[in-house]
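writing this on my phone so excuse typos. first protein, seq and then structure
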Amino acid sequence: MTGALIGRFLPPAQRRTLDELTADLDLTSGDTASKRSAFWSMLALSAVIASAGVLSDSTATVIGAMIIAPLSTPIMGIALGIAKQEAGAAARAGRFVVAGATLVVLIGVGFALALPGTFDLLGNSQISGRTSPGLLDLVAAIATGFAGAIALARRDVGAVLPGVAIAISLVPPLAVVGVCLGQGSMALALGALVLFLSNLLALVLAGTLVFTVVGYTGEAARDSDRSRRKAYLTLALLMVVIVIPLVGNTVGGYLVSVWTSRIQATAQDWISAVPGASVQDVDIVSNQAYVRVQTPRDLPPIDDLLGALEGQVPDGASIVVTTSVGERIDAGVVGG
């Protein structure tokens, strides 16, 4: 059954040999000078394009950076190295990934230094969309990893690789990390880094599974139960590393959504004492909730809002009310 399923996805007549795959994914074999020149030049240009696209909030520009970015090559090289159980192969590929990621982050920092200190990071959709990954991002990344690994292993579907490059976000999150670091926003930088790491590990996970099942193993590892167990243990550890932070982000996002709805409803009841007044929006940033209201008159007592929010949101949450005329009121802390 398993063999028939593998045959459907990877027909023997279309499978590339281990030597062919190694030649494409190993930057330390063959014509290394040409391979590394292409890798570093394309990666640097991709980082510049991604940083510019992120800061100009241009989706088309960011997609262009995704297409030309070669960072998936050494990442899939890690997967092949794990599957081959070849001493040092995964580590060599990993060094290119670390060095390449560092280069992209530094270029992003360089772009950030030219920005004004008042630049609104969360007001930019290219940044805000990459700083809070969740489980759905993981599902998409794993599916993309399988598509990429299968495309690499087959001779007849290489045309799908540009689509894989677009679907798996590698260079743009690193550019966002650099921009956020350059602006001094460590929390946002960490969120973008988690997205990159989850995508990286999803690629390695899917690639390792495909390459192992298909049989891209070195002679020393072939038919070795110990090597197989080691590869599967590696896969399990990768899955744990991927899932934990994304589950945390997903749960956190759900809780923020619940608290936002509760604050919105409670604030609307509070402001309804003023005819014609309404709540325009509620935003939660860290432990502060910003309630924007539109009112033709003075607001009701602010303590009434704080009292009504007790039990609705965690104690210690700070409430800030802003009005349509620009007045800002620090209401205080819930339960304080």
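second protein below, same order as before
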Amino acid sequence: MTIQQAQVIPEGFPGSVPEFIVIQTLRRFGLLEGIDYSYQTPFFGGRQEKGGLVIDFLFSNPPDLAINVQGEFFHLEQGADIIARDRLAKAQLAGEGITLIFINAEDVLSDPERYVQAALNYSDLSGIGG
């Protein structure tokens, strides 16, 4: 999928272009929202609670996997405290038996199949998942 194709996002879609591309890629892999994963799932109170978070993709197939798409501005350019918060989210979910994998938005835009498949194989290529 090209960036131009992804620009045809349904009106009212609540996420970003890279998140929409991930949804389309998951569909091509045979995974369906509501069956294999949920989109924008709140944990620990979501954005309404201190320490809460929202997971972009929480899987029921496999049941112990979550994926967050990391936009450059909101996650990578905001400094060490935001990266620390993302790592804390990874640790919080690990305590729940869930592996959180990050995918950089620019990677989704360049090669969605590669990065989504790596995430589905529990491989974090983002450089911040450590």
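The chain has a mean pLDDT of 82. thats all i got for now
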